[in-house]
Structure formats: structure tokens, C-alpha cells
Amino acid sequence: MTYHPRDMHSRPPKKFVPTPFEYHQEIDLRIDSLTNLGAGVGRVDGWVVFVPYALPGELVRTRIFRNDKNHSQGDLVEVLEKSPDRVEPGCPLFGECGGCQYQHLSYDKQLAWKTRQIKELLKHMASEEREVNPCESTEQIWNYRSKITPHFEKPIDGVVKEIGFLKVGRRNDLLDITNCPIAMKEINEALPEVHADVRANGRQFKRGATILLRATEGRVERNPKAIAREEVGGVKFDFVAGEFFQNNPFILPKFTEYVAEKALAGGAKYLVDAYCGAGLFGLCLAERFTKVMGVEVNEAGAKWAANNVSLNGFDNVSILQADAEAIFEKIDTPAEQTAVVIDPPRKGCTPEFLAQLVEYAPERVVYVSCDPATQVRDYKILRESGYVLEEVQPFDLFPHTRHVECVMVLVKGLI
């Protein structure tokens, strides 16, 4: 792995605070743990220092580039004592490209750290120490990603330069990406032609742009308005190629099966799939429930979910478009026999949604999240309203990155 610390001859930024370390001062420290952003954490006389690409147990040399109120940040200059968990990255651009954070860490330890990070979130944010199930792996840890969106800056005299992703720690500096080891093979096979096509038509672009590459049915779709299709456990889903759909198809059967088991565990007959999107959970679980209702506030999203109900011939699934202020207004099933699956955006649930969920008071809530921090925040509100956390199960939808999907199973208790 090659490290790319900042230019050591550069001057300190105007707002640089020169304590406790000077700008570009080099220090040696032992790494204790990892942050949820994937950086190593070490201490010098009790003072915390964050060092990206350093691993727990390692002795490293770091070059300080920033001092904050309660910690400093440094670039990794050299690993003086390596962790036995350090492995050779699968991508030559790792450490320079900002897309992955864990390629240098053995995969079993990636799973272990993601599990630990959720435990620590519960401890520090919710004051709750409890067991978290080991993070479930995906069957394919390379070439799993079904969508990538490389971009390029405004062409100069019709010349398009780098087409790819941002460099680590940069806002505008791009790396040219001709192969991405976590992207599906179809995408990597299409990349050279995409690069050539964009550069051949450079004068057509008045500004920079983002390129969509979505693998679907053995081909790669570049038109964000085109229709893509994914199949999960025999259920077909059509959706707009540029819109959200889970981007690791290899883990989705295991992922949706777990959600199904936990939604059914209390004996619920009915299912509400809130934030249903294209209908992933509602449709994958439909055969297990007497009645399924998908709720979506976005009109276009609701239409696609309804389309997928028809596409698969389900007669026990209905899709309800609802105002954000009246999510459960049209739900007519008894709450004590109903499970609710929620899979909100990264920002988590709105207070209005949580208030309505508590008022409806379903017997069981299965909360799926791509950001465990906002999930724990929302869990605290549900806990105060009488819900008990029954189980926590992380899933590794994006190996070699800091991202982790988490499922929390909540049951109605006594206030």
C-alpha cells in the first residue's frame, strides 16, 4: 500500500492551531482502536490522534496536519510495527481513492470491528451495554457493487481530464478510475468504453458531470431515467436506474430473509412496510403475511412499488401513498397483530414519523438503517415510548468500506 500524505513543504493553513503539535510535526504512537469512519485512534500523553489507514495494535509514525479542541489529525507516514491483521489491499489506488477505508484489514476483522462499533454506539449514545450479533458477511466481498457514479470536472477546451472519484481529503481533486475492484464485473468491463465516449464528446459538456453505471440483467445502464431490474429471491423489482435501490444484490436474499423472520417472530399476521421505496421488504415478505401494506410519501416511488406488486402478481399487497403528516392514516390492521418494517434514508426518521409510529403502536418494529448513529438516536425515542430492543444484527453490504447496515428488532413492552 502506498500512503499519500500531504505535501510536507506546504505552509500551515491560516487557521492552523500550533498546539499541542507543530504543523507537520512527526510523532510515533500506538494505535488502540478504529473510529466509525475507519481511522486509527492513538494517544500521546492522553491526547487523542486520528490516523487514517493505521490499524489497532500498530506502532505508526504520523505527520500532524490539524489540531482540534480535543484531538489532532495526522497522515500515516510509516508503519513501524505491523498488525497481523494487515493485508495487501485489492486495489492499487487504495489510500489515494476515498471510496474504501478497510482494504488493508483482513475481512474477518472488518466484520468484527463493524460489530464492535455498533456496540459502542449503543453504549455511548444510548447508555446501553448489550450484545450485538456478529456482523453478517456477504457471499461476495469483491465485485459486488451494482452501481457506481464516477464524475469529471468541467472540460478545458473540450478536453475531459480525470473521470473517477475524489482523492482522500480533497474536495475537487479527482482520480482517474479505469477499474474498481468492488464494482461488479459488468461495470468494470464497460468503464473503458465509457471513458472513451465521454472524452470523445468533451465539447458537449459545458460543466462537469456525474456518470451513472448501473448493472442490470447482465448489462450496464447509463441512462439515469431508464428502467433497471433486480431480482431478489424470485421477486422482480423494476425501478428508475438513477434512483435508490440496494447496491449489493448478493447479500439481499440473506438480508431480506432475516427481516422476514424477525417481523414474523411475534406471530404478526399483517405487515406495514414504511419508507417502502420500490417495495423491497414488503414484496419479499409478502408470501409470509396475510396482508402487506407499503407506505411511501414520494408519489413516483409509490407508483413503482405498485408496479412491482402487479409485476409479481401479489394479491395481498397494497401500496399507499401518504402525506408525511399522516403515514398510518390508511392502515386498518390491528396494531397488536401488525409488524412494521422501516428503512429510512441515512438521516433517519423524522420526529413526526416516530410520533405517528408510537401512536399506532405496532406489536413489533424491525428498523433497518444504513446509518447506525441515526438509528440509535431514533431507538432512544422509541425506548422512551415503551419499546424494548430484542436483537441487533449488522449486515456488511459494503465490504472494505466503513459502511454497515444494521437491523434493530423492537417489541412493544410496558412503559
Offer a quick outline of the entry.
The protein has helices spanning 107-126, 185-200, 252-264, 280-284, 299-312, 351-360, 372-384, and strands at 26-34, 39-44, 47-52, 59-67, 71-81, 147-148, 151-152, 164-166, 174-176, 209-210, 213-216, 219-221, 227-232, 235-240, 270-274, 291-296, 317-321, 338-342, 364-369, 387-395, 405-412. With 415 residues, it is an alpha+beta fold. The protein has 3 domains: 26-86, OB fold (Dihydrolipoamide Acetyltransferase, E2P), CATH 2.40.50.140; 108-138 and 230-412, Vaccinia Virus protein VP39 (Rossmann fold), CATH 3.40.50.150; 147-228, no CATH class.
Might you state the CATH topology name of the largest domain?
Rossmann fold
**CATH top level assignment of the largest domain:** Alpha Beta
Supply the number of helical segments: 7
The secondary structure category is alpha+beta
| Rg, Å, rounded | 23 Å
Characterize the biggest β-sheet.
7 strands, mixed
Low-confidence stretches: none
List how many beta strands DSSP finds: 21
Gap from first CA to last CA: 53 Å
Element order: H for helix, E for strand: EEEEEHEEEEHEEEEEHEHEHEEHEHEE
What general form does the structure show? globular
Gross CATH architecture of the largest domain: 3-Layer(aba) Sandwich
Q: Biggest sheet, strands in spatial order?
A: 17-16-15-18-19-21-20
Beta-strand proportion: 25-35%
Overall number of structural domains: 3
Annotated CATH homologous superfamily of the largest domain: Vaccinia Virus protein VP39
Q: Give the % helix.
A: 10-25%
